[in-house]
Amino acid sequence: MRISLVRYAYQTLEETLQKAEDYTIVTHNYPDCLLVNFAFTRS
């Protein structure tokens, strides 16, 4: 997933998760997709 690379761009987990949501919500604006993207971002 492309969103998984966002974890390298920010210093804190909170900032990283917020940016992941900002980038994901544009095209995948349903809860299940956001949860999957957060999982990829945290791993």
Helix and strand layout, with pairings?
Blueprint (H helix, E strand, L loop, with lengths): L12 H13 L5 H12 L1
Helix pairs in contact: 1-2
The helix/strand series, from N terminus to C terminus, equals HH
Basic shape? globular
Q: How far is it from the N-terminal to the C-terminal residue, by CA? A: 12 Å
Overall SS class = mainly alpha
Oligomer: single chain
Number of domains: 1
Q: What is the number of E strands?
A: 0
As a whole number of angstroms, the C-alpha radius of gyration is 9 Å
Tell me the major beta sheet.
Answer: none
Any low-confidence stretches, pLDDT <50, length ≥5? none
Task: Please state roughly what percent of the residues sit in beta strands, choosing from under 5%, 5-15%, 15-25%, 25-35%, 35-45% or over 45%.
Answer: under 5%
Number of helices: 2
* Helix coverage percent: 55-70%
State the gist of this model.
The protein is mainly alpha-helical and 43 residues long. It has helices at residues 13-25, 31-42.
Give structural attributes:
43 residues, mainly alpha
Notes on the structure:
- The protein has 43 residues and is an all-alpha fold.
- It has one domain (2-42).
- The chain is built from 2 helices and no strands.
- The chain has helices at 13-25, 31-42.
- The mean pLDDT is 78.
